[in-house]
């Protein structure tokens, strides 16, 4: 699938990509339980969880399904914290005032199957909806919706989003929609606490398929790529939404900022068209920049305790290993290797030991692949998947490709062992799965469901 990416005419640029929502996103957020997933990428923003008890294989028709329901259009992944699920979707229709005074506990897409609307005007007007769900049943607990209209020069062929993942910090949930509207809501009731329209208030460039990065938490702030002179990255106070700082002249990126620690100093990594950079998350001061063309970077960078930053993008750009060290009070960024074969378009990258696993490919052949993060050596590739996202837990890599195929695998440095694989969802399944304990929450463009991946549940199912 081929499509174009651009920003508004103020900051026009054009590259080719296939939009996906793994997009962009997430970092050191709230301190939740070990098995919570309070933001994009999970508790530690690395798409890995500390869990055990996952089944070694699934029945022929897949793992035990707990529930499934319709949900409106969108690719927002699912956050989980405090016994609630949080995600976003698009509800088409004529815009009406938002529920400013609180949540809608009876509405939603639960009884309204989302369908393609052939009327172009209807595709561009509607609501972005933040929804809280009961993880045991999938029932709506509350919804917060607000009216939006997509401009005529934006492309809705792959849906109007939303694309970003909610961020849970304390008793609040922070969200940003495809139309660059930022909200802070009470996570228990869905009532709005504060909001910003970043296009109207800051002149934020708009991306042709909608904004994609997710909010990143640091101390008492949330950090977002914004775009524009002196506001390439912006930080808001969590308490009241006031601007804490804005800095740099970067173009907006699909990739969510990532909080790392370099030899005792906190930094926020931001990706942009010309490369990667590290900023002081307290004030936006530039710490380092790796000025290499990486195209449209969507894949979230991967950070290791050995101070190696893994970044990857598609369209011939490949992957890089960047070593960061502090010397004489400054951060030095050194490119250790560059491998053009490892091209992660819009999937997640997961590091286990010295190996990074991911889905490599764009418009040509696609395969699951592994690369040595210290040397850049290509270790293996495995066909049989379209472009995919993956999460890791209990020494297993769970893969969901864009055609809706879900697989349970054991990743090794020399090969990928496929334990089980079956067709679960429909295209486009671009949303990264959420793994909470032994429960897996997944969605395609129109449905959301919960699976029990435990050994006990699936052994019982296989025996019946």
Can you offer a commentary on this structure?
- 4% of the residues lie in helices and 42% in strands.
- By secondary structure, it is mostly beta strands.
- The protein has a single domain (3-463), classed as Methanol Dehydrogenase, Chain A.
- It starts with a strand and ends with a helix.
- The model is unreliable at 1-32 and 105-118 (pLDDT under 50).
Report how far apart the termini are: 41 Å
* Total tally of structural domains: 1
- How many DSSP H or I helices? 3
Mean pLDDT: 86
Compute the number of strand runs. Answer: 35
Output the keywords.
single chain; 464 residues; mainly beta; Methanol Dehydrogenase, Chain A; five-stranded mixed β-sheet; four-stranded antiparallel β-sheet; 3 helices; 4% helix; globular; disordered N terminus
Topology:
Layout: E1 3-5, E2 15-17, E3 48-49, E4 64-70, E5 79-81, E6 84-92, H1 120-124, E7 125-133, E8 140-149, E9 167-169, E10 172-176, E11 181-186, E12 192-197, H2 198-202, E13 216-218, E14 221-225, E15 233-237, E16 243-247, E17 258-262, E18 265-272, E19 275-279, E20 286-291, E21 302-303, E22 308-313, E23 318-327, E24 330-339, E25 350-352, E26 355-360, E27 367-372, E28 378-382, E29 388-393, E30 396-401, E31 405-411, E32 416-423, E33 434-436, E34 439-443, E35 447-452, H3 455-463
Parallel strand pairs: 3-29
Antiparallel strand pairs: 1-2, 4-35, 5-6, 6-7, 7-8, 9-10, 10-11, 11-12, 13-14, 14-15, 15-16, 17-18, 18-19, 19-20, 21-22, 22-23, 23-24, 25-26, 26-27, 27-28, 29-30, 30-31, 31-32, 33-34, 34-35
């Amino acid at each position: 699938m081929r499509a174009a990416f651009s920003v508004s005419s103020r900051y026009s640029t054009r590259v080719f990509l296939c939009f996906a929502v793994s997009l962009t996103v997430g970092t050191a957020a709230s301190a939740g339980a070990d098995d919570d997933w309070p933001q994009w990428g999970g508790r530690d923003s690395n798409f890995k969880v500390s869990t055990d008890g996952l089944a070694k294989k699934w029945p022929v028709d897949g793992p035990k399904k707990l529930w499934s329901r319709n949900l409106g259009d969108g690719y927002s992944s699912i956050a989980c914290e405090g016994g609630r699920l949080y995600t976003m979707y698009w509800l088409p229709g004529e815009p009406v005032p938002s529920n400013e005074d609180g949540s809608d506990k009876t509405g939603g897409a639960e009884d309204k199957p989302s369908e393609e609307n052939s009327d172009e005007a209807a595709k561009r007007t509607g609501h972005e909806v933040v929804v809280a769900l009961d993880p045991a049943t999938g029932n709506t607990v509350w919804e917060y919706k607000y009216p939006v209209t997509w401009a005529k020069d934006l492309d809705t062929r792959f849906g109007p989003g939303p694309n970003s993942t909610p961020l849970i910090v304390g008793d609040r949930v922070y969200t940003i929609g495809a139309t660059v509207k930022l909200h802070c809501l009470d996570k228990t009731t869905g009532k709005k606490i504060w909001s910003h329209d970043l296009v109207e208030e800051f002149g934020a460039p708009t991306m042709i398929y909608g904004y994609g990065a997710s909010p990143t938490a640091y101390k008492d702030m949330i950090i977002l790529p914004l775009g524009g002179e002196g506001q390439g990255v912006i930080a808001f106070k969590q308490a009241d939404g006031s601007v804490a700082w804005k800095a740099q002249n970067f173009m907006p990126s699909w990739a969510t900022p990532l909080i790392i620690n370099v030899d005792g100093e906190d930094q926020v990594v931001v990706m942009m068209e010309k490369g990667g950079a590290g900023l002081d998350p307290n004030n936006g001061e530039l710490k380092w920049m790796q000025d290499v063309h990486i195209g449209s970077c969507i894949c979230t960078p991967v950070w290791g305790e050995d101070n190696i930053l893994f970044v990857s993008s598609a369209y011939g750009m490949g992957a890089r290993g960047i070593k960061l060290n502090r010397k004489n009070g400054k951060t030095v960024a050194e490119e250790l290797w560059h491998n053009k074969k490892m091209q992660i378009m819009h999937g997640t990258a997961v590091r286990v030991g010295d190996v990074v696993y991911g889905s490599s490919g764009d418009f040509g052949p696609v395969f699951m692949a592994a690369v040595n993060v210290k040397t850049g050596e290509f270790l293996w590739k495995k066909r049989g998947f379209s472009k995919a996202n993956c999460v890791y837990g209990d020494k297993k890599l769970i893969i969901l490709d864009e055609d809706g195929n879900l697989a349970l695998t054991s990743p090794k440095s020399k090969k990928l062992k496929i334990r089980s694989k079956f067709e679960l969802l429909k295209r486009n399944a671009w949303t990264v799965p959420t793994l909470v304990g032994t429960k897996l929450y997944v969605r395609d463009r129109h449905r959301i469901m919960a699976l029990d991946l435990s050994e006990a549940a699936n052994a019982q199912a296989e025996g019946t």
